[in-house]
Amino acid sequence: xxxxxxxxxxxxxxxxxxxxxxxxxxxxxxxxxxxxxxxxxxxxxxxxxxxxxxxxxxxxxxxxxxxxxxxxxxxxxxxxxxxxxxxxxxxxxxxxxxxxxxxxxxxxxxxxxxxxxxxxxxxxxxxxxxxxxxxxxxxxxxxxxxxxxxxxxxxxxxxxxxxxxxxxxxxxxxxxxxxxxxxxxxxxxxxxxxxxxxxxxxxxxxxxxxxxxxxxxxxxxxxxxxxxxxxxxxxxxxxxxxxx
Amino acid sequence: xxxxxxxxxxxxxxxxxxxxxxxxxxxxxxxxxxxxxxxxxxxxxxxxxxxxxxxxxxxxxxxxxxxxxxxxxxxxxxxxxxxxxxxxxxxxxxxxxxxxxxxxxxxxxxxxxxxxxxxxxxxxxxxxxxxxxxxxxxxxxxxxxxxxxxxxxxxxxxxxxxxxxxxxxxxxxxxxxxxxxxxxxxxxxxxxxxxxxxxxxxxxxxxxxxxxxxxxxxxxxxxxxxxxxxxxxxxxxxxxxxxxxxxxxxx
Lengths: 244, 251
Known about the structure:
The complex is a heterodimer of chains A (244) and B (251). With 244 residues, chain A is an all-alpha fold. Chain A is built from ten helices and no strands. Chain A is 80% helix and 0% strand. The N and C termini of chain A lie far apart (58 Å). In chain B, strand 9 (216-221) and strand 10 form a beta hairpin. At the A-B interface, helix 7 and helix 8 of A face helix 3, strand 6, helix 4 and helix 6 of B.
């Protein structure tokens, strides 16, 4: 079945057949992309900038949504729950496409790809982060709230000074994990032309008609970044636990 | 003396038909009582009788199902009343201390004065250090609560409440979560507080302390006040059957 499928694909796509014939199967030759490596590596900066901006805005918006979710005022809670269900219930790729391609149709103004991507990722990340933060707030002992109340502290101040700092500290490991997931998902921004790592490897592949080398190379770059970040996150988490 | 203290103008706390239900469980049933300026009231009774719930209704940590609570003749159960104002005047000490773990001891103590009363930080720190000296913990000002023993935590919690310079102090089983050897240091601080003339309402299981320091015992049973008497009367000649049984078990 699979073999037939590939055969059919090769027959129907002269381009694919030709490029495979050229390399003669799997002869990896990374020297062919050597001149393009600086171009691809510049994408690290773009990927990080994209991820970090999205994580920061997503975290801020997620905090606001989390406060809505625990609000006594039900419409705020309904709004936040509905928001979360929309962004968790639809594919991220579709969200990017809608915001980049469809919003201009609505407003008449085109959005730069980077901004459209960051907006999508922030909105999406906020939906996930808000659940994490809500859980973190719920895990804080109610005595903390009561102690602040008996001092006569106003609700927003109590949230800001007493509840949120403790909640953030507890959920920091999962926030870091969410940022790492965001870093991986940032490759989806390539579809709207944000020149991050994946997009740059696609450009090189398209220019030279070689595919394995640029994609595998960029895969290794992602892997090193993510393993490195995870290692730092684990160390950081251990230090935090020691300080308790 | 008791009668003078209970007089209309000197009453700090007054409850009228205070009732509280959790679902179908009626925890408090129509409690009407008055607590006067400077009184030290110990609330005792068998577990589950509603002692803590009664105390928590006094500053509306629990909202009464029915009835009213007056603080300095202001009905704080009225929807228009700003409960925060009333709470600033009523410190509360909890069984589990509830110190803010991410703030140092001194920052715990000055949090209320600086953030609620807007007292300048320097001034609040002077007050905070004075209070920490009073509870014998001056040298712990800069450490985090996790470094303290239970008794020390509770003394910091008392200092934190006192920093708001309240008229009333509510204690919710302040020594129940402590190791036995730490009970005394906390009771000593409370004894010192009682001698300053501040109004205190204490839910406690420490009968010796109640007898020695309180000048009035409220014995709660089945959600109501079963007996209201000075300690010397209550402990020697309890009137109700339930109080006799209770004292037999605990003394």
